[in-house]
TrEMBL record, chain A:
Region Disordered, residue ranges: 1-21
Residues of the PaaD zinc beta ribbon domain: 146-186
Annotated MIP18 family-like domain residues: 29-91
Superkingdom to which the source organism belongs: Bacteria
The name this protein goes by in its record: Ring-1,2-phenylacetyl-CoA epoxidase subunit PaaD
InterPro entries per the UniProt record, alphabetical: Fe-S_Maturation_MIP18 (IPR052339), FSCA_dom_sf (IPR034904), MIP18-like (IPR002744), PaaD-like (IPR011883), Zn_ribbon_PaaD (IPR056572)
From TrEMBL, chain B:
Organism from which the protein derives: Raineyella antarctica
Protein name (record): Ring-1,2-phenylacetyl-CoA epoxidase subunit PaaC
UniProt cross-references to Pfam families, sorted A to Z: PaaA_PaaC
SUPFAM superfamilies in the cross-refs: Ferritin-like (SSF47240)
Domain of life where this protein originates: Bacteria
Entry-linked InterPro entries: Aromatic_CoA_ox/epox (IPR052703), Ferritin-like (IPR012347), Ferritin-like_SF (IPR009078), PaaA_PaaC (IPR007814), PaaC (IPR011882)
GO BP, sorted A to Z: phenylacetate catabolic process
Gene Ontology CC entries for this record: cytosol
């Protein structure tokens, strides 16, 4: 299993909210183990790729403390992710791992790794385009989205069918060039 | 996960729901809501919970499949807000989100009448969404700066989601209002139907005085709300309703319910009440 670093978006190098692999060797080893824990809804992405994995620490008594954050408030995958972390760490010598959930700072697609974006597109889901607007949409009556590239044919002649898709984090788009509908991991 | 340690009538498994302690983690270890903060969180949480329950009805019944998904997604976001807020409210006296959602009576809920209004036709649901999502957007934007770090964190998270809800309702209002003669007529009628329940959302209470700096003063949101909704209605060729406000019962958020609340609760609570402690 390849060690996984939370690679920052190049322009985000200084963003203090981007999670990174801990320097502490014990915590770093747990972080690497978690590269085998994937999002149950989008199995090509690890929880670090999406930015759900916030922190790994090792408590004084040696048990790992893993901190995650939900993508959306109602995300039903959080329970599964938490159980998957427990199960995976237990199978690798950490039966006493603790999983915590935090809300602040609120998750944003800006935390998705470059690697994650590449994997998403190869999987047929258009990755988030552009950066999230701080604190919601602008002041106009309708929010605008940058053009989204079709993950099937590469055309940018695409349009949104619905803001809402098969999971909270995705929207439904369709390509006008190849006529294929596709999911877009929306900027959030 | 610390759920197993909470003495609860309804949660017998070591569930993995987010607890108040976890919400507050990194901010205030062991932080629990004061009685006033709990009361405030309960009103916000009840609004979100009841509206989530209302919107969930549309799944498989919306005019098109994309709308089944959209309204279901919005309901899911609201349910997430309700879970955080009720969990936090319950931290004041050791109750869980499930205790509060399933084992309170009609009189104990604090939801506003707007969210209790029946779904009606699609236009009625969109009209209710337009008003509630704009209110929620302004509310959470202010609450994100609350002196209470837990409320602030919940609001910060919710804000980005209700911005989508607002956009969804706005787009449908434009389409229906500025659509056919029939869609225009029904959208106008729908706006007039939900309009009488607005005042309740913007009425200050003693509670807001006591929670200065923590709670958002409802009246402070009204001007921006009115301006934004008037803009959307004008763009949709709809009139701002001139109808009286339904301020019956004298008090707001007093537990005096619309006549619809009991029916929603009966449906929402039936499984948990019949099978206390059931898990799946």
């Amino acid at each position: 299993m390849a060690p996984l670093n939370a690679q920052a978006h190049p322009s985000d190098a200084a963003d203090p909210d981007i999670a990174t692999r801990p320097v502490d060797p014990a915590a770093g080893a747990v972080w690497d183990l978690l590269s085998a824990v994937h999002d149950p809804e989008i199995p090509v992405l690890t929880i670090a790729d999406i930015g759900i994995l916030r922190r790994v620490e090792v408590a004084a008594d040696g048990h790992p403390v893993v901190t995650i954050t939900p993508t959306y408030s109602g995300c039903p995958a959080m329970d599964t992710i938490s159980q998957d972390i427990h199960t995976h760490l237990a199978a690798h010598g950490h039966p006493d791992a603790e999983v915590r959930t935090v809300l602040l700072p609120a998750w944003t697609t800006d935390w998705m790794t470059e690697d994650g974006r590449t994997k998403l597109e190869a999987y047929g889901i258009a990755p988030p385009t552009g950066r999230s607007a701080v604190h919601g949409s602008g002041s106009g009556p309708i929010s605008l989205t940058l053009s989204v590239r079709c993950p099937n044919c590469g055309s940018t002649d695409t349009r949104e069918m619905s803001h809402f898709g098969s999971t909270s984090c995705k929207a439904l788009w369709v390509c006008q060039a190849c006529a294929e509908p596709f999911d877009h991991f929306k900027v959030h | 996960m610390s759920f197993a340690t909470i003495d609860s009538a309804t949660k017998q498994s070591a569930g993995t729901a987010i607890t108040a302690e976890e919400i507050a983690e990194g901010l205030h270890e062991g932080h629990t809501a004061s009685p006033d903060v709990a009361r405030y969180a309960l009103t916000l949480g009840d609004d979100a919970l009841i509206l989530a329950q209302r919107l969930g009805w549309w799944i498989s019944r919306a005019p098109e499949m994309e709308e089944d998904i959209a309204l279901g997604n919005i309901a899911l976001d609201l349910l997430g807000h309700a879970r955080f807020l009720l969990t936090y409210a319950g931290s004041a006296d050791g109750r869980t989100e499930d205790d509060l959602a399933y084992f309170r009576t009609e009189e104990e809920f604090r939801s506003c009448r707007l969210v209790e209004q029946p779904n009606g036709d699609f236009a009625h649901t969109i009209a209710r969404q337009l008003l509630f999502s704009q209110y929620a957007y302004l509310l959470y934007r202010e609450l994100a700066g609350s002196a209470d770090s837990v409320l602030g964190a919940i609001a910060d998270k919710a804000l980005k989601e209700v911005a989508y809800h607002r956009d969804h309702a706005t787009q449908w209002t434009l389409r229906l209002g500025d659509g056919t003669e029939e869609s225009h007529r029904r959208m106008q009628e729908a706006i007039e139907h939900v309009w009488p329940y607005l005042e309740e959302l913007f009425t200050d209470e003693d509670l807001h005085d006591r929670l200065e700096g923590i709670a958002v003063r409802p009246s402070s949101l009204r001007a921006e709300f009115d301006a934004h909704v008037a803009d959307v209605l004008a763009a949709a060729t709809l009139e701002v309703p001139q109808v009286p406000q339904a301020m019956a019962y004298g008090g707001v958020r007093s537990g005096a319910a619309s006549e619809h609340r009991g029916f929603i609760l009966a449906e929402m609570q039936s499984l948990a009440v019949r099978h206390p402690g059931a898990t799946w």
